């Protein structure tokens, strides 16, 4: 014990031991942080955890028709399985959606390279093929069963300018700077990782290439489609702007859907 000061005894502090404990704790925290970064990085590299998930998405309790992942304020809808392919080819779809009019609005050139993202069984891919006789249609889907159905349809119709591409949840697997136009019909709202998918689509577009989305109008309560399977014009614009696309126009001549046009800046 040291001398008294102001009537209180001064204790000799074990400074060396205290410093060792402080340094040991600091190293422990640092090591845990490094290990955490390495684990997250390894998962991302293996495809188990997309790098942008923590910053681009929030997680909530899934609603009946959603997956519990929220992007820019919108819960992502569940994907329709290949078991529902017959619904895509239903006879009434021609009157309900006027697909031929939608294709005409695209103003395609005969030599264009077009991607049908979320092509399903090829309802639109076959129609697009007729519009680009000297071009190509790249039909992208994440379900091999859908692409099998598309292959059967192409063989039966003897269509030779459609190529099937198996995408993943976060990539369309398209070559860069290839596309004149990317079309998504009633599909974008189901993308599990929309930001990553759109980043891949934008990279696949030529400078000045266009993106067109057909989505059921969320603003219209008379459109009898489940809420998460509809999108408002404002929401689509918000999500396309997030990946650097420029809005060109919105066409509302279709019976139930917005047809929204965007462009990849030329420079």
Provide a quick synopsis of the model:
This protein is α/β, with parallel strands linked by helices and 267 residues long. The protein has two domains: 1-49; 80-263, 3-Layer(aba) Sandwich (Rossmann fold), CATH 3.40.50. The protein is 34% helix and 24% strand.
CATH architecture of the largest domain: 3-Layer(aba) Sandwich
Per the CATH scheme, the topology name of the largest domain is Rossmann fold
Sheet-strand content, in percent, reads: 15-25%
Oligomeric organization of the protein chains: single chain
- CATH class (first level) name of the largest domain: Alpha Beta
Counted beta strands: 12
Over all CA atoms, what is the radius of gyration? 27 Å
Question: How many domains is the backbone divided into?
Answer: 2
The helix fraction, in percent, is 25-40%
Query: In which order are the strands of the major sheet placed?
Result: 8-7-6-9-10-12-11
Q: Please outline the major beta sheet.
A: 7 strands, mixed
Assigned CATH superfamily of the largest domain = Vaccinia Virus protein VP39
- Our count of helices gives 9
Shape type: globular
- Model regions low in confidence, pLDDT < 50 over at least 5 residues: 1-52
Average pLDDT: 85
Could you characterize what this model shows?
This protein is an alpha/beta fold and 267 residues long. It has nine helices and twelve strands. It has helices at residues 15-45, 53-56, 85-88, 93-97, 99-105, 125-131, 144-157, 194-204, 233-241, and strands spanning 4-5, 8-9, 57-59, 66-71, 74-77, 113-117, 136-141, 162-166, 179-185, 205-216, 246-251, 257-263. It is globular and about 45 Å long. The model is unreliable at 1-52 (pLDDT under 50).
